[in-house]
């Protein structure tokens, strides 16, 4: 892997992670020149049910004669969670789960994603669809099969909920530990940050860490620095889902940077759920300037009307991030993941190849980018 990392570092300057408007170098071309679909990337912040296709949601609601969950706007985080639970209740068969997983992998591939780590809790569907182990096997088999066909690696984050008894989290961590090395790559914590303090879940996370799993809880989304600090102290995370409120606290940013703790950032989610009023106010660049490693994630594409490609487009078009900065974020995403070493190395080479693309100077009378790259989805 070191050779791939060296190749990428030869093409990226340190300023690619630090400068709001990117480096002043001939290696970084016009921001629209490189197709974002062809940039290999990982999605580390994705909730499986929240990535259901709108058409699938409508079909399931019709099948079970249930009101169509409204996925347009949310007046509060509670309302958002209520909508998510309504989506979950429409998944009632093993075939429905297989379809969900297959379509999530297909949509990831369409965004140029080479590795995904969906958050998932199999106990949600037990015992109705079998034991938690049965459900977990079903999801892993479906994800692996679809990924093999489409070239997308698939690993799961088993995520406990702050809204449930911490003893449930401990049991789930035991299940995650049993599946370490068999498709489960991380252990997370979701739900309302105000519901239960992270200290209540420390036993679960000790079990997960001892099993070699990545520790990736949610924190620092709707609550500020104290939520992040308590999560750091109680759970010792490798990554934090969201975590963007750390930008308000220099000492927290310094800690995250020094400890190489990655924030799995979701731009659209932060805007829609009120973390920021406008994308242009998002602290992603400020975090990067302070050395905090960040990936981009899609969070809940169904509920937020987004995709991984859209998140990278927003970073490019609304945050004015350069291709060098986007490549650095993609590199962070795969290196912070639970992907196999061979896939990580291959992805880093792909990112380096993406950065090596050279386009003629328009001043010389040549097109900036080949016509085949002038596609709406790039």
TrEMBL record:
High-level lineage: Bacteria, Bacillati, Actinomycetota, Actinomycetes, Kitasatosporales
PROSITE patterns in alphabetical order: A_DEAMINASE
Keyword flag Nucleus: no
GO term, biological process aspect, one: purine ribonucleoside monophosphate biosynthetic process
Organism: Streptomyces caniferus
Keywords per UniProt: Hydrolase, Metal-binding, Zinc
InterPro entries: A/AMP_deam_AS (IPR006650), A_deaminase_dom (IPR001365), Ado/ade_deaminase (IPR006330), Metal_Hydrolase (IPR032466)
A Pfam family this chain is assigned to: A_deaminase
Signal peptide: none
Full protein name: Putative adenosine/adenine deaminase
Required cofactor(s): Zn(2+)
UniProt similarity note: Belongs to the metallo-dependent hydrolases superfamily. Adenosine and AMP deaminases family.
């Amino acid at each position: 892997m070191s050779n791939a990392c060296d190749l990428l570092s030869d093409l990226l300057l340190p300023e690619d992670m630090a400068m709001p408007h990117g480096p002043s170098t001939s290696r970084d071309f016009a921001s629209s020149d490189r197709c974002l679909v062809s940039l290999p990337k990982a999605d580390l912040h994705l909730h499986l049910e929240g990535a259901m296709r709108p058409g699938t949601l409508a079909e399931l609601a019709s099948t079970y004669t249930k009101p169509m969950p409204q996925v347009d706007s949310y007046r509060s985080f509670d309302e958002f969670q209520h909508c998510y639970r309504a989506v979950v209740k429409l998944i009632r068969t093993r075939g429905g789960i297989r379809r969900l997983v297959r379509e999530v992998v297909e949509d990831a591939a369409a965004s140029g994603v080479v590795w995904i780590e969906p958050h998932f809790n199999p106990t949600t569907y037990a015992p109705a669809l079998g034991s938690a182990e049965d459900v977990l096997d079903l999801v892993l088999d479906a994800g692996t099969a679809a990924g093999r066909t489409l070239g997308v690696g698939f690993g799961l984050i088993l995520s406990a909920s702050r809204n449930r008894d911490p003893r449930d989290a401990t049991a789930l961590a035991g299940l995650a530990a049993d599946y370490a090395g068999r498709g489960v790559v991380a252990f997370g914590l979701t739900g309302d940050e105000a519901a239960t303090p992270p200290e209540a879940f420390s036993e679960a996370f000790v079990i997960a860490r001892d099993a070699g799993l990545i520790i990736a809880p949610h924190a620092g989304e709707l609550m500020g620095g104290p939520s992040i600090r308590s999560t750091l102290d109680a759970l010792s995370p490798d990554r934090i889902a969201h975590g963007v409120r750390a930008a308000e606290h220099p000492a927290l940013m310094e800690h995250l940077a020094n400890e190489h703790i990655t924030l799995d950032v979701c731009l659209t989610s932060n805007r829609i759920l009120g973390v920021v009023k406008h994308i242009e106010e998002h602290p992603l660049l400020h975090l990067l300037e302070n050395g905090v490693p960040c990936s981009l994630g899609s969070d809940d594409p169904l509920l937020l009307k987004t995709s991984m490609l859209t998140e990278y487009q927003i970073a490019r078009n609304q945050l004015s991030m350069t291709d060098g900065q986007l490549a650095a974020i993609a590199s962070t995403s795969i290196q912070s993941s639970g992907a196999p070493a061979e896939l990580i190395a291959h992805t880093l080479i792909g990112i380096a190849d993406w950065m090596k693309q050279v386009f003629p100077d328009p001043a010389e009378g040549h097109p900036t980018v080949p016509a085949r790259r002038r596609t709406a989805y790039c």
